[in-house]
Automatic annotation (TrEMBL):
CDD domains, alphabetized: C2_PLC_like
PROSITE patterns, per database record: C2
Annotated source species: Labrus bergylta (ballan wrasse)
Gene Ontology molecular function terms on file: phosphatidylinositol-4,5-bisphosphate phospholipase C activity
InterPro entries to which the protein is assigned, alphabetical: C2_dom, C2_domain_sf, PI-PLC_fam
Species lineage: Eukaryota, Metazoa, Chordata, Craniata, Vertebrata
Top-rank taxon, per record: Eukaryota
Residue span(s) of domain C2: 1-68
Protein name: C2 domain-containing protein
Alphabetized Pfam families for the sequence: C2 (PF00168)
Biological process terms in GO annotation: phosphatidylinositol metabolic process; phosphatidylinositol-mediated signaling; release of sequestered calcium ion into cytosol
């Protein structure tokens, strides 16, 4: 489980520009879950989430459509290194 930093003052088009790397031991059973939260001085509000089977993720740039808020998505770049089982997800 990893978390990106909070993007302040950009609720409509946040850009994280971070790379998250995961070591996957059993890709046939692995799930990747994306969660998006709004963070402001009042508190945290849930925006949406999507859980995807690792074996369904294809390399390249992808829109991940979130469940929870109509017409919301995040744009990610997925890179898969088959030799070591590492996955890199850049948001």
């Amino acid at each position: 489980m990893q978390q990106t930093r909070v993007v302040d003052d950009n609720g409509f088009n946040p850009m994280w520009e971070e790379t998250l790397v995961f070591d996957i031991q059993m890709p046939q059973l692995a799930l990747v879950r994306f969660q998006v939260w709004d963070h402001d001085p009042i508190g945290r509000d849930f925006i949406g989430q999507r859980t995807v089977a690792f074996t369904s993720m294809l390399p390249g740039f992808r829109h991940v459509y979130l469940e929870g808020m109509a017409e919301s998505s995040i744009f990610v770049h997925v890179a898969i290194n088959d030799n070591s089982g590492k996955v890199s997800v850049k948001e």
